[in-house]
Amino acid sequence: MVETALRILVVDDHPDTRHWLAQELTQAGLLVHCAASGEQALVELAGFVPDAVLLDVMMGGLDGFATCERIREIDEELPVLFMTGLNDTEHVLRGFSAGANDYVTKPLSIPEIVARVQVHTRTARLVRSTREAVDASDLAMVALGTSEMLWCNDAARRLFDRLGLRGSDGTAPDPDSQTRVLAAVAPLRDAQQTQTEVIFCLGSTRLRATTVAEPTDAHCLVSLAESQEVSAAPVRLTARESEVLLWVARGKTNRDIADILGMSPRTVNKHLEHIFEKLGVETRTAAAAAARRLRIDDAGAPGD
Fold first, then answer.
1. Half-sphere CA count of 176, side-chain side, radius 13 A
2. CA pair distance 17, 6, nearest whole angstrom
3. Domains 138-226 and 239-299 are alike in CATH topology
4. Which CATH class is domain 138-226?
5. I need a surface site. Which of 48, 99, 161, 288 has the fewest CB within 10 A?
6. What ranges make up the beta strands (E) of 36-190?
7. pTM (2 decimals)?
8. In whole angstroms, what separates CA 33 from the centre of its chain?
9. What angle do CA 96, 149, 228 make, to 5 degrees?
C-alpha cells in the first residue's frame, strides 16, 4: 500500500482499461483521475496538478508522444510514465525524447506501476522543494548549462538589477553578461579541477562565484556575491599571455617584452588588456602581484 495518497492521472482511450486501472490503483492507495484522450488530459491538467501521469502511447487524436510534449510545456517536472506494448528501442527513445520519465509495458503490473510512481514522485517533490528553497534564499544563485543560463533565483535577479545588467527583454542578466558569467565559472565545471570558487569582474563589479552543488554534465549551480578580494583561484591564461605576464612580473617594459618574445609592443599591449580583464586588475603592479600569487614566476604558466 502507498503510505501517502498520491494523485495520478490515467490517460487511455479504452474504457475497459481506464476502468480496470482506476479500480486497481485505487485499491493500491492512489487517488485516480481519468482522461479518455490526450486532449481531455490537457483540460484536466488545467484544473488540478496530479503527482504523476500514466499515459497510453497509442491513442486517437493526440497520441501519447504529442500529449507528453504538451504536458512538458505546462509542467517540466511532473512525472510522466508511458504505458506501451511498443517496447522496442525506437519507441522507448522517442518516448524519452518527448519528455517521459519512465515507461511500463503491457500487460501491466499494478505493483510495478505503484513502485515507479512512488520513485518518480519522491524525486519530483525533492526537486520542487529544492527549487522553492533556492528561490526563497537570500543568497543569489544561478544554474548554468553548457551554453546558457538555465535559471536564476529572485536574489540573483535583484543582484543583476542592482548592477544594471537586466536584459532589454526583461530577462536577467543580459545575454552578454550571461556569456561572461559562463566563461568565468568554466573552471568550476572542469573535471580535472578541484576548485570550488572563482572571482571575476562583471562590468565594474567584482563577483565571487561558489559552487553550491556538485557540477554535472548538464548544469552547474553556483552562488554569486560581490567581493573585494583578488581571486586566489587559477586563472585561465593562454600560453602567450602567461609569457607576457611572466615578464611583467619581472619588471620588464612592453618594449622589453616585445624584444624578448619577438612581437610588436602593440601586440604586447593587446595581450596585457586581456590579462588585466582576466585577472580583474587595472595596473601593471596589480598584475605583477597576481602573477606572484599564481606562482607564474616559478612555474612559467598556470597548469604547466
1. 7
2. 20
3. no
4. alpha beta
5. 48
6. 52-56, 80-84, 102-105, 140-144, 149-152
7. 0.53
8. 33
9. 150
Sorted by where each begins, the domain ranges of the chain are 7-133, 138-226, 239-299
Whole-number Å distance between alpha carbons of 209 and 216: 16
Nearest C-alpha neighbor of 229 from the set 248, 201, 249 = 201
Residue type, 178: Q
Q: What are phi and psi of 154, to 5 degrees?
A: -60, -35
β-partners of residue 149 are 144
Joined grid coordinates for residue 269: 599591449
Enter the C-alpha cell of residue 33.
483521475
The answer as to CATH 1.10.10.10 being correct for domain 239-299 is yes
User: Mind listing the pLDDT tens digit for each residue in 43-52?
Assistant: 999 988 899 9
Q: CATH says 7-133 is which class?
A: alpha beta
Give the residue carrying C-alpha cell 524519452.
Answer: 96
Q: At 209, which helix (H) or strand (E)?
A: strand 205-211
Q: How many residues does the chain have?
A: 304
Query: Cell 528553497 identifies what position?
Result: 133
**Distance of CA 269 to CAs 128, 201, 285, 290, Å?**
50, 20, 15, 17
C-alpha grid cell, residue 87? 517496447
pLDDT below 50 — which residues of the chain? 1-2, 230-233, 298-304
Question: Which pLDDT value is given to residue 36?
Answer: 95
